Amino acid sequence: MLAGMNLTLIEAFSAVMKSGSTTGAAELLRVSQPAISRSLKRLEDTTKLKLFERAGPRLTPTPEAHLLYQEVLDTFVGLDRLKQSVARMRAVGTGSIRIASSAALGLSFVPRALKRFADRRPDVSIRFEIGNSVAVRNLVASGSYDIGLCAEEIDRSNLVAKPFIETRGVCVMRPDHALAAESVIEPAMLHDMPIISLAPDDTARIQFDAALTTAGAKPRFVVETQFAATVCQLAMEGVGIGLTNSLTYVSDRFAADELIAKPFDPTIKFRALMILPPHRARSRVVDELVEVLELERDGLAAACEARFGVAGC
């Protein structure tokens, strides 16, 4: 779809989709806002597509714009992969590995595993990316990255995927919270409470909502976020009580900051996958990193179970 298009027009369009406005796109590309507007008009003329609904200065992408943007992303991933391949060819005799992770595992767990791996293999260069689970999935499925760690709700097509870790959900709060003395948090206790929660499409949030509905509890969702660590941080700030992953609570050492965590009953399960590119023989370096990740995983899982119990129970 992108063949024959002016790259400048595509860059302007991509910048608008990323930033949400022509002003933001102009700042990203360091050009004038009128130049961005002219590029969008030329792109619409070239493609014969209506890409944005315009209401004054506000631009709302059409369905066609979202489809075109996905084409742009796929094309740029392919170009980036080509650049990386050329760079690896230049680095003769030097191993390299690329790992992507969601924030739940990427903020603390993966860095510790990479430290252990780097100590073992100082000759290997490592590229590490943190993103949401969909972004991690796309990086690995395209072959741009060797290993991914992400939530289970991704599209698993064109991937080798296997369960990596399962932990249970906990409720986190400040020591002065009304429920801090409870040994277990049950849905009915949360009625009319200010709640910090994961996004509505998260599988753990779906389990949480079902438990609340069954109990007839109606808390007040004051903040919703994609990241378990952000739930913990907001709870520390006193925004409310939050449902999060025990893995994040333990691995990020929030306990050292006096954040209280209590098991939630019924059990909410957080599951993560390890994903690998399809149809590719794994190198020795990838196998070694997988081994290190699994060793670090086993220690973290044991710590979570010792503190909060087994996720499956």
Describe this structure in words.
The chain is an alpha/beta fold. The chain has helices spanning 7-19, 22-29, 33-47, 63-90, 103-106, 109-120, 133-141, 203-215, 228-236, 246-251, 284-308; strands at 52-55, 58-61, 96-101, 125-130, 147-151, 160-173, 194-198, 220-225, 241-245, 260-263, 269-276. The strands form 2 sheets. Strands 3, 4, 5, 6, 7, 8, 9, 10 and 11 form a 9-stranded mixed β-sheet that branches. The longest helix has 28 residues, at 63-90. It is globular. The termini are far apart.
Give me the count of strands: 11
Gyration radius from CA atoms, angstroms: 23 Å
Shape: globular
Mind summarizing the main beta sheet?
Answer: 9 strands, mixed
Spell out the key features of this protein.
single chain; 313 residues; alpha/beta; nine-stranded mixed β-sheet; two-stranded antiparallel sheet; 11 helices
